[in-house]
Amino acid sequence: MAHTHTKRESSGLLLLIAGLLPLVLGLLFTFFEAQQNVKRQQVAAADALLTQTETVTQNAWDMINQLKQYTDDKCVNPMRKIQQLGSLSAYFRAVGTFSGPNVTCSSAFGRNPGTLSQMVLGKMPAHPYDWMYSIGGTYGVPHRPAVLFMHQLPSSKGVYVVVEGQYLMDFMRAIGAQRGYQLTLRVNGGYTIQTGHVEPDDNLLFSGSTYRAESQRFPISVSVTSSKAEALKNWRQAFFIFLPLAIILSLLCMLLAVNWLKHRLSWRDELRKGIRNGEFLVHYQPVWQVEERRCAGVEALLRWQRHDGRQVRPDMFIAAAEAEGMIIPLTRHLLNIIADEAQTWSVAPGFHLGVNVAAEHIQHPDFLADIRQFAARLREKQMIITLELTERSLIHEGPEVANKLATLRREGIRVAIDDFGTGHCSLSYLQNFQLDYLKIDRGFINAIESLEGETPVLDAIISLSHKLALEVLGEGVETPLQFEYLKNHGVNYIQGYLYARPLNSAALMAWLTKKGSLPPGTPD
Ligand SMILES: Nc1nc2c(ncn2[C@@H]2O[C@H](COP(=O)(O)O[C@H]3[C@@H](O)[C@H](n4cnc5c(=O)[nH]c(N)nc54)O[C@@H]3COP(=O)(O)O)[C@@H](O)[C@H]2O)c(=O)[nH]1
């Protein structure tokens, strides 16, 4: 009951995860996408501002070039020309000439209006030759920023241009207004011209961010700061575009989960029903003993014949039984069938009976009891029971498994390692566990191509088995060549279609009488 309850809970959890996962992934995806989008927009805004400022800057330097011819004049003849240049050109607040600390000619204020420091409302930075600098205001327009361009000769005379900050600020506002950006522009480390305002953030998830960029041509740096609201808006847009897809994905995942659960449940139910209705059969595949030239015993292999006549492949239903926690009931059922059928057999004492045991069963507390009960039912027949384990069985709970196997071995049960070479078993396991047989997987047998040919892995496995004093069995032997090769290399047992296919109990008895002592490959 508790088991069913837990299963129901885990099914519910799976459905919940399947439904929520696409939504959560969608949230994360749109969150990062929105951040990238904000960044892309900031980069575009910063690029636009830099480009525009560079254009204005280039115009200012062109103007400086035009003004250079008036550097040495006393502002008598060029006055009109300078006034024209200053008032007719776009962007400029004033242009003029200077000599030492004094302005000699100004397009805005005429001849000798004052000093350069008075013009820029502060101390003039000491820069030689050509330089540019952003300032907070000028004598005529104290509260509006500007950018000052100076060309100064070694004689301390020179020409200047004051670019009107309003042009730049109008442009900055145009770029930033739509997205609520705060933009800054700074020339040569001077005054920071700023438009827009962004409140500082207190939200960790959605916060504003600042992108900074610099001109490659001039000492101009700009920054674009986005607000939390912009980040949220971008995320909302991305999420609503993604939402329908996320809902479809959620439904799809839930559908897949439901299907998977149904399939899973049906495997478990079907296996239970199969056991109840006696749909499982056991076939026995004979094993040839090379030295004694006779059938040494059989390996029991489970078969599932559905009531509608369909056969389910053992590798499929065994894997499903293992996945669904049904392998132990199924193996107990198998042991019961074998014990029932073996009562009718007439075999010599010492006849081998191999049974496949799953890793989960070995780790179960009832494992010893299950095997002992099985052995007790066969005691009269004096058969040798061999438990066939895969390498996987040895890896988990190693010492506990080793103890259980050692106990059973003391009671006359033998242990074989099955499908050797296909698992991930370290060779040390072969020493640590007390084993009797090593069954070489048929993949290695298939590699045999000629009697003289080299099959290095197979040869190494055979020689390893000999060194460890394990008896060795070749599985899946299908050709006389494979048989000869294995025989020549000291393999003790042969199992495969060359000798016999798996047979039901009655067919096995008939086969033993007729062919039990004929070597593999003898025609019918
Ligand atoms: N835990 C349990 N596992 C079991 C049980 N019964 C079977 N199995 C495992 O299922 C896998 C598939 O088994 P099956 O389809 O029965 O195949 C066996 C033989 O029929 C096949 N075989 C034997 N000789 C040949 C051959 O010459 N050629 C060829 N192509 N196939 C051959 O090999 C399988 C025997 O495998 P093994 O157990 O490794 O000796 C398989 O992994 C079974 O172990 C069960 O009751 N419990």
From TrEMBL:
PROSITE patterns from the entry? EAL
Q: Return the Gene3D superfamilies for the record.
A: EAL domain (3.20.20.450)
Reaction catalysed by this enzyme: 3',3'-c-di-GMP + H2O = 5'-phosphoguanylyl(3'->5')guanosine + H(+)
Judging by the UniProt lineage, the source's domain of life is Bacteria
Provide the topology term for how it sits in the membrane: Multi-pass membrane protein
Cellular compartments per GO CC = plasma membrane
* Residues in EAL domain copies: 264-516
GO-annotated molecular function: cyclic-guanylate-specific phosphodiesterase activity
UniProt keywords (A-Z) are:
c-di-GMP, Cell membrane, Hydrolase, Membrane, Transmembrane, Transmembrane helix
Q: Where in the cell is it found?
A: Cell membrane
Under the heading InterPro entries, the entry gives: CSS-motif_dom, Cyclic-di-GMP_PDE-like, EAL_dom, EAL_sf
Task: Tell me, in one coarse class, where this protein mainly resides.
Answer: membrane
Q: What is its EC number?
A: 3.1.4.52
Membrane-spanning regions, if any? 12-32, 238-261
Tell me the protein's name.
cyclic-guanylate-specific phosphodiesterase
